[in-house]
Amino acid sequence: MTGAERVAIDVEAVTAEPASDAFLSVRDLQVQFPTEDGIVQAVNGINLDLARGQTLGIVGESGSGKSVTSQAILGLLKGTSAQVTGSITLDGQDLVRASEADMQKLRGDVMSMIFQDPLSSMHPFYRVGDQIREAYLVHNHVGKKAAHQATVDMLRRVGIPNPDSRYRDYPHQFSGGMRQRAMIAMALICNPKLLIADEPTTALDVTVQAQILELIKDLQREYNSAVILITHDLGVVAETCERVLVMYGGQCVEMGTVDEIFYHPEMPYTWGLLGSMPRMDRTRQARLQPIAGQPPSLIQVPKGCVFNPRCRFTDRVPGNACREVRPDLVAAAGSHPVRCHIDSAERKRIWSSEIAAKL
Asked: In the predicted model, what is the mean pLDDT of residues 342-359?
């Protein structure tokens, strides 16, 4: 299409400067891991902005770079073999160039994380309450008695019954949902301004899952925290987030509001994710359609579009662009950022006539 027919905005160029209200701003984040087999390009050029009080959902299959992105933001890759480049700015402070001592002051205080597996994230030999109290003591100049009371209060806030007695229990004495609540208490004990939740509801039953998500939303409203929610569950994203970043092969392939991603998606990979999600609000006429094939190796990423080996719509693009040319993340007029060679008008037509009716 000609420039007169399509106004394409290069998002990666436009977003070179952080948004004025951004509390967290990430620009061209690259994370590489050198291995004997080659360089693993775990994250390749991620840009995002997040303001206080907002929730961003990051979705994608395992191995798409979601957790590595969060680890880079928290500085957990410092001191490892990982090569991190780009810019991560939190409230005006550059985290990529910050020292480990500076990052330790920020972690648990200004920013915190709820890890995916609370059983392996908590020390099995120390009491749950003591581990949470230690996090409070590190960042607050208070005595042990005051820290103990703050810990009991937070355990009560996150819904743990009899917090005075459960304080003395060990992680193995807590159920899965209770351990997750304890991890949330540890993450929130210092009222962080940025909270990253990495699969916070994995392996929990739906009742506990709903309670955990409601708890995160309540505490976010109270502390006006910025929240990044990493998950495979699109239903959780629809219920919790305002904006969504879809990752595949270490890249952002689509970004938009919840309404844009769920009701007007334009990236074939996003169509695949939605097509593999069961719907409870209607009778489904056909079987769920999983995305064919496997995610790419991050050592040997496909030359063109990273999704092209699994995409059913490469024939909609003239020539061999899908296999030879890496698409930019661009937003056509009246659209949101998408990384795809298919023309925007054609993507909209495919979604409305071929995809949406089958979901």
From this structure: 90
